[in-house]
Amino acid sequence: MSLTKERTHFNAGGTAGFLLNLKPRPGIEIFRDGVFYIPSPEKQMPRKSKGSGEQIFERQENRMEFMTGVKEKETVTLADVTAEGMEGKTVKIEGTVHTIRDMGEVAFLILRRREGLLQCVFEEGVTEFDWKTLKEASGIVAEGVIRKEERAPHGVELRLTGITVLSEPAAPMPLPIAKWKLNTSLDAKLNRRSISLRNVRERAKFRIQEGVVRAFRDFLYSQGFTEIHTPKLGAKGAEGGSNLFRLDYFHRPAVLAQSPQFYKQMMVGVFDRVFETGPVFRAEKHNTKRHLNEYTSLDFEMGYIDGFEDIMAMETGFIQYMLKMLETDYAAELQILGITLPKADKIPAVRFDEAKCLASEKYGHKIRNPYDLEPEEEVLIGRYFKEEYGSDFVFVTHYPSKKRPFYAMDDPADPKFTLSFDLLFDGLEITTGGQRIHDYQMLLDKIAARGMTEEGMEQYLDTFKYGMPPHGGLGIGLERLTMKLVGEDNVRETTLFPRDLSRLEP
Fold it and tell me: For 430, what's the count of Cα atoms within 13 Å in the CB-facing half-sphere?
């Protein structure tokens, strides 16, 4: 064992030897990799021992910092600026230069923030900044005096006294985002999605979408549901069929989840009521205005139901809650988009076969597929209930068994039909749901009757082997629901980054 002035080596076997001829010294003693380091008190910064490559860290007095919560900022929000009693006060506010309008002796700067737009005014001799050097899309801190101005957004403006530039763009804007309507093609908007969404109207659509998801969560929490998060990689699809994205998972076959169906049913046996918001994947080779290959599904599953009508009633409650929240908390976005929200005080329900007949009789539509609703039929059924009952929504119930998954409960009165439903909103299906089979043997019999294999479903089936309550649930297409709420006719308009047959970017 050798000794130095500042370190002592220990035996290589890992057992500490005895320190010899070591004089106590002030500081921190550090043992690392068989070396006992004794830092020198007069040296306050980290240093390396000669030839060892080891870093010696010493105590740094009065250098400790603690986070105690959200940091308060000197800058204000748009809500602060527009609050009562703020006129005449000097404030600082952060934002992005949305556009600048030169009016000669004055210039108007429109500041964009997450809450909306704020009009700021440059005045010669007042503003200590040359606005002609300011670039669109720059991040700034604007300082000025709040004044009332009825013609300005929110009825106020900021008379600028100074500007601090935080950031500048490296190139001019590729899209005219400052225009009220972004008059460009859908492809152009999607190709530059992160830029096009800076347009106030484009952005407002996704604020509405935020409100839908927020309402879904809040309402279901209020009804005793537990939020879950299920895997999107699995061994087998819940719906069956060929519309599966297949992939190699460490030399094992796997698929991307078509829905969280198996998992949310399994969790009913744990929590009674569960919900999830998350992506689902459908490998369908379509290129329509209503379809995506990846979309967001709002799912819930509830146990101890008396019938599938309980599921429809719960969704009706959610829609009512959502519309009320949008009306109160998202009024600004509704105004920007010129939206009149639909009514959902009561939603009619009609059997599948009856709905087809009603559309056929009133509008002369020929029934070509007796087992499913064609897009044209959905439109006509929606039109019928709007004209006859003033309803934008309609539940279509008792879908044919052959068009529903194996876990759908057949109608005891007529097994050719199921205790299931779709919800149509303005002639478009936005929800599929219904009662599920909870009896283990009944599940096995239906799987066998359809010529399916149990392989890959063992864990799912075991759940039912050991008992499950009567239950049911649904899945709502978030992008479709948003599309109808904001009055668009293409689901890509209400999808942040769409994935379809031709698009994997951005």
Answer: 25
